[in-house]
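Hello forum,

I keep getting stuck at the same step: I have a sequence, I want structure tokens, and every attempt I make locally crashes halfway through. Rather than fight my setup again tonight, could one of you with a working pipeline run this one for me? It's a single chain of 209 residues.
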Amino acid sequence: MSSTSSIQNRGPLAPQREVGRQRVAELIDAAAAVIQERGFEAATMAEIAARAEAKIGSLYRFFPNKDAIADALMAHQAEILRTEYDAIHDRAADATPEELADILIDLLVKLHPQTRGFAALIDSRTDMTVVRQRFRAQTLAGVKTALTTCAPGLDDKEADDIAAVVLNNMKTMVGMATRDAPTSPGAPEQLRLMTRLYLAAKLAPARSL
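Reply #2:
Ran it on my machine without issues. Output:
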């Protein structure tokens, strides 16, 4: 087996030093940008290395092939969501339903610059249905935990339903912010108000139980 084949067939290298972790983060960011612009299939290892201003050998050292980069991008996305929802859950216990509505409705808009590459990845690959479902489940679980932390008396089944409604509003807000969904200048604020009123109506009674 050639040395090139050996590199491409091994797993990704986990850096042990901070400088290596920083380089991996830069490579992942570069990969996300290239995939967002060109799609996963059209993106090349050379383009990713060039975008990161790295030598191609440095890219192959950490990521032996594009599938390894895709896996790293998915893991990075999962960690971003985990970190954001942990912070939201810490705030939810002391937040009013209206305050929680504002936090949630802005979340995906806030994360959009960091998640465009991941979105392009799952949109450009036909084998990503399971991945898409897994991340939707992670997002729904994060929203539900925020709701039940804010309103501990909330019925579990109702929390599932409310989380689904709120997530759809969050995604609509992203579409409005990026002009991918029909909108008008005042529509985002109307969506924000609608979400505030909805959570106030649904969570306030459960907060007093």
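Confidence is low (pLDDT under 50) at residues 1-7. If your local run keeps crashing, start a new thread with the error log.
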